[in-house]
Specification:
By secondary structure, the chain is an alpha+beta fold. Helices cover about 20% and strands about 30% of the residues.
Length: about 90
């Protein structure tokens, strides 16, 4: 086992975990109420920007922002959403 890269991996994973359990219905409702864009707190203490567009729901900013794929799955500790890429770091 190598510790090389471990801090970066943990930081990347933390950017992908929102605080709380957000169902797809709650997510869609929040996007509708807020004009198609919301920011959820993450365990990395940086918000996860979520945007609704004609192409679907994306996470993060920019052209390379990953999108939601499939449906949300309830888990014992929250809700799991499958995305088609990594949320890029801010800045």
């Amino acid at each position: 086992k190598s510790e090389e890269g471990r801090p970066e991996l943990i930081a990347t994973l933390r950017r992908h975990i929102a605080v709380g359990a957000i169902t797809r219905g709650d997510l869609d409702k929040a996007l509708d109420i807020n004009g198609g864009k919301i920011a959820l707190p993450s365990v990395a203490n940086t918000p996860i920007t979520i945007r609704q567009s004609e192409d679907g729901v994306t996470l993060g900013e920019g052209e390379e922002a990953p999108g939601l794929t499939g449906k949300a799955e309830a888990a014992s500790n929250g809700v799991i959403y499958v995305i088609d890429g990594l949320i890029p770091p801010e800045g």
